[in-house]
Write a structure and sequence with these properties.
The protein is mostly beta strands. It is built from one helix and four strands, in the order ββαββ. It is elongated.
Length: 117
């Protein structure tokens, strides 16, 4: 349901005594999720943590939702991710009509020496 609502990625972690005497942790993830950097902490990730008290003990549920980039800023951040790549069209280049070569063996002219006083 999270991905169908327009999220770019989702991660659900359930930890605690699910069944039996020992505690376990189960992780469910889908889509793209960034875990480090300023974008992960501030703009793109919504995080919710809830603790449930059950008869066997405490159960923790952590949900992370990565929002999509939105140019209007209504449903997601206005700035795209820093690693987003945009490919531009190549510029038209004039092809030479006749072949030519450059003489690369010419020594550069030396500047006149400045006398030291």
């Amino acid at each position: 349901f999270i991905m169908e609502s327009g999220a770019k990625g989702a991660e659900v972690i359930v930890s605690g005594k699910l069944r039996g005497a020992r505690a376990k942790s189960m992780k469910f993830s889908e889509g793209l999720m960034i875990h480090s950097g300023h974008a992960a902490n501030a703009e793109y990730i919504d995080l919710a943590v809830r603790h449930v008290e059950m008869r066997q003990g405490m159960l923790g549920v952590q949900v992370k939702i990565m929002k999509r980039w939105d140019t209007t800023g209504e449903i997601g951040p206005k700035r795209p991710l820093p690693d987003t790549i945009s490919i531009l069209m190549a510029k038209e280049e004039a092809l030479p009509t006749n072949p030519y070569s450059e003489n690369k063996n010419v020594a550069p002219t030396q500047a006149p020496a400045v006398p030291v006083a």
